[in-house]
Amino acid sequence: MQVTIKQIKIGDRKRSLKTESVNQLAESIKEIGLLNPITITQDKRLISGMHRLEAVKLLGWTTIDCNVLHYNDALHEELIEIDENLIRNDLTVLEQGQQLNRRDEILSALGLRREVGGNGANQFQSNSELNSPKLKSTEDIAQEIGISKRTAQHYKQIDRDIDDSVKDMIRDTDVADNKTDLLKIAREKTPETQRKVANHIINKPHVTQNAGYYEWYTGEEYIKSARFVMGDIDLDPASSKEANEVIKATKFYSIDDNGLDKEWAGRVWMNPPYATDLITKFAQKLHKHVSNRDITEAIILINNATETKWFNIFIDIATAVCFPEGRLKYWRTDGKTSTPLQGQAFIYVGQNIDKFSNEFKQYGWIAKL
Protein backbone atom coordinates (compact mmCIF):
# COMPACT_ATOMS: atom_id res chain seq x y z
CA MET A 1 0.00 0.00 0.00
CA GLN A 2 1.06 3.60 -0.56
CA VAL A 3 1.79 5.64 2.58
CA THR A 4 2.64 9.31 2.93
CA ILE A 5 6.30 9.53 3.91
CA LYS A 6 5.71 12.27 6.51
CA GLN A 7 3.41 9.91 8.43
CA ILE A 8 6.11 7.23 8.90
CA LYS A 9 7.59 7.15 12.42
CA ILE A 10 11.24 6.25 13.06
CA GLY A 11 11.92 4.19 16.20
CA ASP A 12 14.98 4.12 18.45
CA ARG A 13 16.33 0.77 17.24
CA LYS A 14 17.31 1.86 13.73
CA ARG A 15 20.86 1.20 12.48
CA SER A 16 23.01 4.21 11.63
CA LEU A 17 22.70 5.39 8.06
CA LYS A 18 25.53 5.09 5.54
CA THR A 19 25.36 8.18 3.37
CA GLU A 20 27.15 6.57 0.43
CA SER A 21 24.76 3.62 0.47
CA VAL A 22 21.75 5.96 0.53
CA ASN A 23 23.12 7.93 -2.44
CA GLN A 24 23.83 4.77 -4.46
CA LEU A 25 20.40 3.39 -3.63
CA ALA A 26 18.77 6.66 -4.69
CA GLU A 27 20.50 6.40 -8.08
CA SER A 28 19.31 2.82 -8.48
CA ILE A 29 15.71 3.65 -7.51
CA LYS A 30 15.72 6.59 -9.92
CA GLU A 31 16.70 4.22 -12.74
CA ILE A 32 14.61 1.13 -12.02
CA GLY A 33 12.16 2.13 -9.29
CA LEU A 34 11.63 0.79 -5.77
CA LEU A 35 11.68 -3.00 -6.14
CA ASN A 36 11.24 -3.87 -2.45
CA PRO A 37 8.68 -1.99 -0.31
CA ILE A 38 9.62 -0.93 3.21
CA THR A 39 7.90 -2.57 6.18
CA ILE A 40 5.85 -0.63 8.74
CA THR A 41 3.44 -1.41 11.56
CA GLN A 42 -0.26 -0.63 11.41
CA ASP A 43 0.41 2.63 13.23
CA LYS A 44 3.07 3.51 10.62
CA ARG A 45 6.25 2.81 12.65
CA LEU A 46 9.19 1.81 10.44
CA ILE A 47 10.36 -1.79 10.91
CA SER A 48 12.70 -2.22 7.95
CA GLY A 49 13.86 -0.15 4.99
CA MET A 50 15.56 2.89 6.55
CA HIS A 51 18.03 3.31 3.66
CA ARG A 52 15.26 2.94 1.08
CA LEU A 53 13.15 5.50 2.91
CA GLU A 54 15.99 8.04 3.00
CA ALA A 55 16.83 7.33 -0.64
CA VAL A 56 13.32 8.17 -1.88
CA LYS A 57 13.33 11.28 0.28
CA LEU A 58 16.42 12.40 -1.65
CA LEU A 59 14.46 11.86 -4.84
CA GLY A 60 11.65 14.08 -3.58
CA TRP A 61 9.04 11.34 -3.21
CA THR A 62 6.07 12.13 -0.96
CA THR A 63 4.68 8.57 -0.77
CA ILE A 64 6.26 5.12 -0.70
CA ASP A 65 5.13 1.50 -1.12
CA CYS A 66 4.87 -0.32 2.22
CA ASN A 67 4.25 -3.80 3.53
CA VAL A 68 2.13 -3.47 6.68
CA LEU A 69 3.05 -5.73 9.61
CA HIS A 70 0.01 -7.11 11.42
CA TYR A 71 1.79 -8.28 14.56
CA ASN A 72 1.23 -6.30 17.73
CA ASP A 73 4.32 -7.19 19.75
CA ALA A 74 7.86 -5.84 19.83
CA LEU A 75 9.54 -9.25 19.47
CA HIS A 76 7.96 -9.98 16.09
CA GLU A 77 8.91 -6.50 14.96
CA GLU A 78 12.52 -6.90 16.12
CA LEU A 79 12.75 -10.32 14.45
CA ILE A 80 11.73 -8.91 11.08
CA GLU A 81 14.14 -6.01 11.51
CA ILE A 82 16.98 -8.47 12.24
CA ASP A 83 16.17 -10.41 9.08
CA GLU A 84 16.28 -7.16 7.14
CA ASN A 85 19.67 -6.25 8.63
CA LEU A 86 21.12 -9.69 7.90
CA ILE A 87 19.96 -9.83 4.29
CA ARG A 88 20.26 -6.24 3.12
CA ASN A 89 23.13 -4.75 5.13
CA ASP A 90 26.84 -5.39 4.74
CA LEU A 91 27.45 -6.81 8.24
CA THR A 92 30.74 -8.15 9.53
CA VAL A 93 31.09 -11.74 10.72
CA LEU A 94 30.91 -10.46 14.29
CA GLU A 95 27.74 -8.49 13.60
CA GLN A 96 26.14 -11.42 11.78
CA GLY A 97 26.87 -13.71 14.71
CA GLN A 98 25.34 -11.23 17.14
CA GLN A 99 22.20 -10.76 15.02
CA LEU A 100 21.78 -14.53 14.52
CA ASN A 101 22.07 -15.19 18.27
CA ARG A 102 19.56 -12.46 19.07
CA ARG A 103 17.31 -14.06 16.45
CA ASP A 104 17.55 -17.36 18.35
CA GLU A 105 16.57 -15.66 21.59
CA ILE A 106 13.50 -14.07 20.01
CA LEU A 107 12.36 -17.30 18.35
CA SER A 108 12.69 -19.11 21.66
CA ALA A 109 10.69 -16.42 23.43
CA LEU A 110 7.99 -16.70 20.78
CA GLY A 111 7.91 -20.50 21.08
CA LEU A 112 9.18 -20.97 17.53
CA ARG A 113 12.19 -23.17 18.31
CA ARG A 114 12.20 -26.89 18.96
CA GLU A 115 14.65 -29.48 20.25
CA VAL A 116 15.63 -32.13 17.70
CA GLY A 117 17.82 -35.24 17.79
CA GLY A 118 19.61 -36.84 20.67
CA ASN A 119 22.42 -34.31 20.95
CA GLY A 120 20.28 -31.45 22.21
CA ALA A 121 20.94 -29.31 19.14
CA ASN A 122 18.48 -26.54 18.45
CA GLN A 123 16.88 -26.08 15.06
CA PHE A 124 14.49 -23.49 13.70
CA GLN A 125 11.11 -24.62 12.55
CA SER A 126 10.41 -24.46 8.85
CA ASN A 127 8.48 -21.63 7.23
CA SER A 128 5.35 -23.76 7.03
CA GLU A 129 5.54 -24.50 10.76
CA LEU A 130 6.14 -20.85 11.55
CA ASN A 131 2.81 -20.24 9.80
CA SER A 132 3.92 -16.86 8.47
CA PRO A 133 5.55 -15.73 5.22
CA LYS A 134 7.31 -12.98 7.18
CA LEU A 135 9.41 -15.35 9.33
CA LYS A 136 12.30 -17.37 7.91
CA SER A 137 14.23 -20.45 9.00
CA THR A 138 17.98 -20.37 9.76
CA GLU A 139 18.68 -22.10 6.47
CA ASP A 140 16.59 -19.52 4.57
CA ILE A 141 18.46 -16.65 6.19
CA ALA A 142 21.90 -18.23 5.64
CA GLN A 143 21.11 -18.81 1.98
CA GLU A 144 20.00 -15.23 1.46
CA ILE A 145 23.12 -13.91 3.20
CA GLY A 146 25.21 -16.11 0.92
CA ILE A 147 26.64 -18.49 3.54
CA SER A 148 25.95 -22.08 4.55
CA LYS A 149 23.96 -23.03 7.62
CA ARG A 150 27.15 -24.46 9.13
CA THR A 151 28.95 -21.14 8.59
CA ALA A 152 26.06 -19.35 10.30
CA GLN A 153 26.54 -21.66 13.31
CA HIS A 154 30.26 -20.76 13.34
CA TYR A 155 29.41 -17.05 13.38
CA LYS A 156 27.02 -17.54 16.30
CA GLN A 157 29.66 -19.49 18.22
CA ILE A 158 32.20 -16.73 17.66
CA ASP A 159 29.78 -14.15 19.07
CA ARG A 160 29.07 -16.33 22.11
CA ASP A 161 32.73 -17.08 22.86
CA ILE A 162 34.34 -13.65 22.54
CA ASP A 163 34.21 -11.37 25.58
CA ASP A 164 32.23 -8.14 25.15
CA SER A 165 35.25 -5.95 25.96
CA VAL A 166 37.23 -7.73 23.22
CA LYS A 167 34.37 -7.26 20.75
CA ASP A 168 34.55 -3.51 21.39
CA MET A 169 38.27 -3.68 20.71
CA ILE A 170 37.94 -5.36 17.31
CA ARG A 171 34.52 -4.15 16.13
CA ASP A 172 35.80 -1.39 13.83
CA THR A 173 38.72 -3.34 12.34
CA ASP A 174 39.03 -5.73 9.40
CA VAL A 175 39.38 -8.51 11.99
CA ALA A 176 35.65 -8.18 12.63
CA ASP A 177 34.99 -9.77 9.23
CA ASN A 178 37.80 -12.35 9.25
CA LYS A 179 36.41 -15.68 10.46
CA THR A 180 39.82 -17.33 10.85
CA ASP A 181 41.19 -14.58 13.10
CA LEU A 182 37.98 -14.39 15.10
CA LEU A 183 38.13 -18.13 15.74
CA LYS A 184 41.66 -17.73 17.08
CA ILE A 185 40.42 -15.11 19.52
CA ALA A 186 37.31 -17.08 20.48
CA ARG A 187 39.33 -20.21 21.37
CA GLU A 188 41.19 -18.36 24.14
CA LYS A 189 39.48 -18.90 27.48
CA THR A 190 39.97 -15.65 29.38
CA PRO A 191 39.23 -12.04 28.34
CA GLU A 192 42.83 -11.10 29.16
CA THR A 193 44.22 -13.70 26.76
CA GLN A 194 41.63 -12.83 24.15
CA ARG A 195 42.72 -9.18 24.30
CA LYS A 196 46.38 -10.15 23.82
CA VAL A 197 45.56 -12.33 20.82
CA ALA A 198 43.26 -9.70 19.33
CA ASN A 199 45.88 -6.98 19.76
CA HIS A 200 48.47 -9.15 18.02
CA ILE A 201 46.14 -9.88 15.09
CA ILE A 202 44.96 -6.29 14.72
CA ASN A 203 48.52 -4.99 14.53
CA LYS A 204 49.83 -7.37 11.86
CA PRO A 205 49.30 -7.28 8.08
CA HIS A 206 46.25 -9.23 6.91
CA VAL A 207 46.86 -11.65 4.08
CA THR A 208 43.29 -11.12 2.94
CA GLN A 209 43.88 -7.45 2.22
CA ASN A 210 44.95 -6.53 -1.30
CA ALA A 211 45.86 -3.02 -0.21
CA GLY A 212 47.55 -3.58 3.14
CA TYR A 213 51.14 -2.68 3.94
CA TYR A 214 52.07 -3.21 0.28
CA GLU A 215 50.13 -3.01 -2.95
CA TRP A 216 49.98 -6.52 -4.40
CA TYR A 217 49.96 -6.58 -8.20
CA THR A 218 48.83 -9.36 -10.52
CA GLY A 219 51.49 -11.42 -12.31
CA GLU A 220 52.04 -10.66 -16.00
CA GLU A 221 51.18 -14.19 -17.20
CA TYR A 222 47.62 -13.91 -15.82
CA ILE A 223 47.14 -10.51 -17.43
CA LYS A 224 48.30 -11.89 -20.79
CA SER A 225 45.72 -14.65 -20.47
CA ALA A 226 43.00 -12.13 -19.62
CA ARG A 227 43.91 -10.01 -22.65
CA PHE A 228 43.91 -13.10 -24.86
CA VAL A 229 40.38 -14.04 -23.77
CA MET A 230 38.85 -10.57 -23.97
CA GLY A 231 40.97 -9.20 -26.81
CA ASP A 232 41.88 -6.10 -24.83
CA ILE A 233 41.30 -4.45 -21.43
CA ASP A 234 39.27 -1.26 -21.59
CA LEU A 235 39.16 -0.59 -17.86
CA ASP A 236 40.81 -1.57 -14.58
CA PRO A 237 38.76 0.19 -11.86
CA ALA A 238 41.06 -0.76 -8.94
CA SER A 239 44.62 -0.13 -10.06
CA SER A 240 47.60 2.22 -9.96
CA LYS A 241 50.13 3.73 -12.36
CA GLU A 242 52.64 0.99 -11.49
CA ALA A 243 50.15 -1.85 -11.93
CA ASN A 244 48.92 -0.51 -15.26
CA GLU A 245 52.42 -0.78 -16.72
CA VAL A 246 51.68 -4.53 -16.79
CA ILE A 247 47.91 -4.49 -17.24
CA LYS A 248 47.95 -1.82 -19.97
CA ALA A 249 44.27 -0.99 -19.59
CA THR A 250 43.00 1.82 -21.82
CA LYS A 251 41.67 3.48 -18.67
CA PHE A 252 42.37 2.78 -15.01
CA TYR A 253 41.29 4.27 -11.69
CA SER A 254 43.65 4.51 -8.74
CA ILE A 255 42.84 4.87 -5.05
CA ASP A 256 43.00 8.64 -5.51
CA ASP A 257 40.49 8.53 -8.37
CA ASN A 258 38.01 6.36 -6.39
CA GLY A 259 36.71 4.07 -9.12
CA LEU A 260 33.49 3.53 -7.19
CA ASP A 261 32.40 7.03 -8.18
CA LYS A 262 33.22 6.57 -11.88
CA GLU A 263 31.44 4.94 -14.82
CA TRP A 264 32.51 1.40 -15.82
CA ALA A 265 32.12 0.03 -19.33
CA GLY A 266 33.59 -2.31 -21.92
CA ARG A 267 36.00 -5.13 -21.13
CA VAL A 268 37.07 -5.02 -17.50
CA TRP A 269 39.95 -6.55 -15.58
CA MET A 270 39.73 -6.20 -11.81
CA ASN A 271 41.78 -7.28 -8.81
CA PRO A 272 39.73 -5.45 -6.14
CA PRO A 273 40.92 -4.30 -2.70
CA TYR A 274 40.07 -7.02 -0.18
CA ALA A 275 39.15 -4.83 2.78
CA THR A 276 35.60 -5.92 3.62
CA ASP A 277 33.92 -2.55 3.27
CA LEU A 278 35.49 -2.04 -0.17
CA ILE A 279 35.33 -5.39 -1.92
CA THR A 280 31.57 -5.67 -1.40
CA LYS A 281 31.09 -2.24 -2.96
CA PHE A 282 33.28 -3.18 -5.94
CA ALA A 283 31.30 -6.41 -6.34
CA GLN A 284 27.97 -4.57 -6.22
CA LYS A 285 29.10 -1.92 -8.70
CA LEU A 286 30.38 -4.54 -11.16
CA HIS A 287 27.10 -6.44 -10.80
CA LYS A 288 25.15 -3.26 -11.55
CA HIS A 289 27.12 -2.41 -14.71
CA VAL A 290 26.98 -5.98 -15.99
CA SER A 291 23.21 -6.09 -15.39
CA ASN A 292 22.87 -2.76 -17.23
CA ARG A 293 25.02 -4.18 -20.07
CA ASP A 294 27.58 -1.39 -19.70
CA ILE A 295 30.25 -4.06 -19.20
CA THR A 296 30.48 -6.58 -22.03
CA GLU A 297 33.11 -8.87 -20.51
CA ALA A 298 35.10 -9.08 -17.28
CA ILE A 299 37.70 -11.16 -15.49
CA ILE A 300 38.06 -10.69 -11.74
CA LEU A 301 40.83 -12.08 -9.53
CA ILE A 302 39.67 -12.59 -5.93
CA ASN A 303 40.20 -14.82 -2.91
CA ASN A 304 38.17 -18.03 -3.13
CA ALA A 305 36.17 -17.07 -0.04
CA THR A 306 33.04 -18.87 -1.21
CA GLU A 307 31.22 -18.30 2.09
CA THR A 308 31.27 -14.49 1.83
CA LYS A 309 28.53 -12.20 0.58
CA TRP A 310 30.83 -10.44 -1.90
CA PHE A 311 32.01 -13.71 -3.50
CA ASN A 312 28.40 -14.69 -4.13
CA ILE A 313 27.67 -11.29 -5.70
CA PHE A 314 30.43 -11.99 -8.22
CA ILE A 315 29.20 -15.55 -8.79
CA ASP A 316 25.69 -14.29 -9.52
CA ILE A 317 26.91 -12.71 -12.78
CA ALA A 318 29.69 -15.20 -13.59
CA THR A 319 29.60 -17.61 -16.52
CA ALA A 320 32.76 -19.54 -15.54
CA VAL A 321 35.31 -19.76 -12.74
CA CYS A 322 38.92 -20.94 -12.62
CA PHE A 323 40.19 -22.26 -9.27
CA PRO A 324 44.01 -22.25 -9.55
CA GLU A 325 46.10 -25.18 -8.32
CA GLY A 326 48.36 -23.76 -5.63
CA ARG A 327 48.54 -20.10 -4.65
CA LEU A 328 49.31 -17.30 -7.07
CA LYS A 329 52.34 -15.06 -6.77
CA TYR A 330 51.87 -11.31 -6.76
CA TRP A 331 54.60 -8.77 -7.44
CA ARG A 332 55.40 -5.66 -5.42
CA THR A 333 57.08 -2.38 -6.21
CA ASP A 334 59.97 -3.26 -3.88
CA GLY A 335 60.97 -6.05 -6.28
CA LYS A 336 59.74 -8.90 -4.10
CA THR A 337 56.91 -11.36 -4.67
CA SER A 338 54.15 -12.28 -2.23
CA THR A 339 51.98 -15.37 -1.93
CA PRO A 340 48.82 -15.04 0.17
CA LEU A 341 47.82 -17.82 2.54
CA GLN A 342 44.38 -18.20 0.96
CA GLY A 343 43.65 -19.61 -2.49
CA GLN A 344 42.28 -17.49 -5.32
CA ALA A 345 39.72 -17.66 -8.12
CA PHE A 346 39.42 -16.08 -11.56
CA ILE A 347 35.78 -15.11 -12.16
CA TYR A 348 34.77 -14.80 -15.80
CA VAL A 349 31.76 -12.79 -16.97
CA GLY A 350 30.93 -12.99 -20.65
CA GLN A 351 30.00 -15.17 -23.60
CA ASN A 352 33.47 -16.52 -24.57
CA ILE A 353 33.23 -19.31 -22.03
CA ASP A 354 35.13 -21.92 -24.06
CA LYS A 355 37.93 -19.47 -24.85
CA PHE A 356 38.26 -18.60 -21.16
CA SER A 357 38.19 -22.27 -20.16
CA ASN A 358 40.82 -23.34 -22.70
CA GLU A 359 43.15 -20.49 -21.73
CA PHE A 360 42.81 -20.58 -17.95
CA LYS A 361 42.81 -24.38 -17.51
CA GLN A 362 46.62 -24.14 -17.46
CA TYR A 363 46.27 -22.54 -14.01
CA GLY A 364 43.67 -24.85 -12.48
CA TRP A 365 40.29 -26.47 -12.85
CA ILE A 366 37.34 -24.79 -14.51
CA ALA A 367 33.70 -24.59 -13.48
CA LYS A 368 31.18 -23.46 -16.10
CA LEU A 369 28.09 -21.81 -14.66
Could you explain how this protein is built, in words?
The protein is α+β, with helices and mostly antiparallel strands and 369 residues long. Among the domains are: 1-70, Alpha-Beta Complex (Conserved hypothetical protein from pyrococcus furiosus pfu- 392566-001, ParB domain), CATH 3.90.1530; 217-368, Rossmann fold. 43% of the residues lie in helices and 17% in strands. The chain contains 15 helices and 16 strands. It has helices at residues 19-32, 50-58, 74-88, 93-109, 127-130, 138-145, 149-161, 164-170, 179-187, 191-202, 220-230, 241-247, 276-291, 309-317, 353-360, and strands spanning 2-4, 38-41, 46-48, 63-69, 113-115, 122-124, 217-218, 235-236, 251-252, 266-270, 295-303, 320-324, 330-331, 337-338, 344-349, 364-368. A hairpin with a 5-residue loop joins β13 and β14. The protein starts with a strand and ends with a strand.
Strand tally is 16
Task: Name the structural class.
Answer: alpha+beta
Radius of gyration: 22 Å
Helix content: 40-55%
Question: What would the average pLDDT be, to the nearest integer?
Answer: 81
Q: Which architecture of one domain per CATH?
A: 3-Layer(aba) Sandwich
Give the overall shape, derived from the CA principal axes.
globular
- Largest sheet, spatial ordering of strands: 10-11-15-12-16
